[in-house]
Amino acid sequence: MQGHGHGQPAKRPPHTAVLVLVRVLFVAAGFLSLGFLAGAMQLRLALVTRRALDWALFAAVLALDAISVALVGSDPTDDVETVRGNVGMCLLFATLAAATVYYLVAEIRHYGRRAREFAAHRPVPAPAPAPAYGYPGPAVPPYLPPATPVPSGMPTPPPSAPHTPVPGPPPVVPPSHRPAPARIDQVRAELDELSDYLRRQDGRTEDGR
């Protein structure tokens, strides 16, 4: 018993500029021929999509163009003034307009769907494997400053030794503030004067008694 196997990979759609150029050429051919080549657009669409509906519409456009040509050709006047000639021209232009609109819409949808399918089936690049546990990753070279170019004729300076930081002096601790001796002596003198003043007041009080 065999399996289904892998599906057919999605094909890359043509470039957008190429598709626009092809559409312009087919639409211009239909209008420049006054609708007699309207079936070319439907044939192009049927070959691209390969759907039974588009092949059936291609056959219908050919039939309508043949009827229009027959009606216009049966008009005996040179300016297409009879009813049959007018009906044939109207049918021809209506077929051209319908075929142009359907061709543009159907082809744009077809290639838009193909672009989405191609984007969905496009392989995504696998990420780089992470280093296994216990093994170092890729070595990263240390950063080196760019060398200064030396003018020609001048001696090359010797490489400088690595800079070693020099310890600075120890921090200076400010001395603690202590009351000056002069302040103590002043307070002591003021206390002595106050004591003398009080003794004199006491002596005067006893004399007055």
From TrEMBL:
Q: Where is the composition biased (Pro residues)?
A: 148-178
Extract the ranges annotated as region (Disordered): 148-184
The superkingdom listed in its UniProt entry is Bacteria
Q: Write the record's keywords in alphabetical order, separated by commas.
A: Membrane, Transmembrane, Transmembrane helix
Q: Can you tell me where the transmembrane regions are?
A: 20-40, 52-73, 85-106
- Which named protein is this? Integral membrane protein
Biological source species: Streptomyces malaysiense
